[in-house]
Design goal:
It is a single chain. The protein is of the alpha/beta class. The chain folds into 3 domains: about 10-65, OB fold (Dihydrolipoamide Acetyltransferase, E2P) (Beta Barrel); about 95-125 and about 270-430, 3-Layer(aba) Sandwich (Rossmann fold); about 130-250, OB fold (Dihydrolipoamide Acetyltransferase, E2P) (Beta Barrel), CATH 2.40.50.1070. It is about 25% helix and about 35% strand. It has helices at about 90-110, 165-180, 185, 215, 220-225, 275-285, 300-305, 320-335, 345-350, 370-380, 390-405; strands spanning about 10-15, 20, 25-30, 30-35, 45-55, 55-65, 120, 130-140, 140-150, 155, 190-195, 205-210, 230-235, 240-245, 250-255, 260-265, 290-295, 310-315, 340, 360, 385-390, 405-415, 425-430. β5 (about 45-55) and β6 (about 55-65) form a beta hairpin. The radius of gyration is 23 Å and the shape is globular. The structure holds S-adenosylmethionine (SAM).
Amino acid sequence: MSERRVRLGDVLDLAIEKGVYRGLGLARHEGQVVFVPRGLPGDRVRARVEKVGRGFVRAGAEVLLSPAPERRQPPCPLFERCGGCAYQHLGYEAQLRLKEAVLRESLARAGTGWDGPIEVVASPETGWRSRARFHLQPVAGEWRLGLHEEGTHRVVDLDSCLQVTPGLVGAARGLLAALAAQPAWARRVSEIALAESDDGSARVGALAWEGDPADGSRLAAVASSAPRLTGLGLATAEDRRYVGLHGSPYVETAVGDLRYRAHVLSFFQANRHLVGPLVERVREWSGGEGPVLDLFAGVGLFALALADGASGVIAVEQDARSSEDAEWNRERAGLDNVRIVRTEVAAALSALPAGEPERVVLDPPRTGAGPEVVRAIAERHPRLVVYVSCDPPTLGRDLAAFASAGYVPDRVAVFDMFPDTFHLETVVRLVPR
Ligand SMILES: C[S@@+](CC[C@H](N)C(=O)[O-])C[C@H]1O[C@@H](n2cnc3c(N)ncnc32)[C@H](O)[C@@H]1O
């Protein structure tokens, strides 16, 4: 018997069975899977089919027929429109359970067979973000600074944001007012990156700049009318060069006994509350003696913390600014057993000879490490690998490659580095089978 497939515009009554990655609720209509953005496990909704792709049906909820037990009033009034959060309407404890379930499913799909415990590390739910990127957009003579509306390029003006530290929100609004006073120049700015020191003593902005940076020097005046910023510069659209307009481009964060300097355009963990516990877990799970390889090292966050007791640490990072920060941080900490190598990870793995049994830490961007890098790591026969991931699907793909190369998980944790969003940070330790 052939069932009728759903069509665009159909209205369906759906029971959300579970949450899946990217903030989607999964339901079934006559056996066919339908994804409902922001649908929560336990919700019953009336939803209109908005997209029918190959193997993918999406329906937008129009009526909440009965709510999931853990639904709540979103604490942010902008939640309905703003694409920055996915779970403000779900109690925080339930968010953690949902993220654990999402990860468990990714691990199962990857064929890891992991049925052991997953440690879940919670974060304070508000004011955790000390790094942010906001879009700048003129709309009908007014300037907006914030995040895109869900699924569009319209900017939601964020006069407050519960994710971001109050100091950084204040700095962003000051900068918006200063830019709005110079509309001809502000039009060349599409995005603003912001970073804050852990003690709030420094805040830096980088304006994504279209065109000749020499023109942008006119914006130096903006810095004096945005007094909460200790540093301001342009990030050229063409080559992501930083051209300073005022003050220093760096912020600082203390983690344990170490201090890290990070350029506003270098990568640094955005959750100021969980960066310390994350480093501690990586250190604990990769502990011991012998050499360490820290791949995708950023400003040396893990490399420096792993130096104690290691015969040597090699930190591999391809970005010029981040590796400069890493070198600076290494020197300030006086760690002679750490070497920062500025190169691409695959190139480093083929150039570095494998020595005594080593430990490998890797923390790739969302795209993951990829099967070649996984193979190259496994061929060094490390005694353990600690994989830090911000994307469950690419983590799953890479864990499948590790399994084929003989490495299986023996510890798993989720760090809720991004409360109220659908993002999650996973730490997995792998050991030879
Ligand atoms: C998710 S960040 C992790 C940084 C650091 N481990 C931390 O926690 O602060 C990923 C880093 O990998 C770097 N990166 C991305 N692709 C790379 C590659 N193919 N080779 C070397 N570094 C890379 C990026 O510049 C970025 O600093």
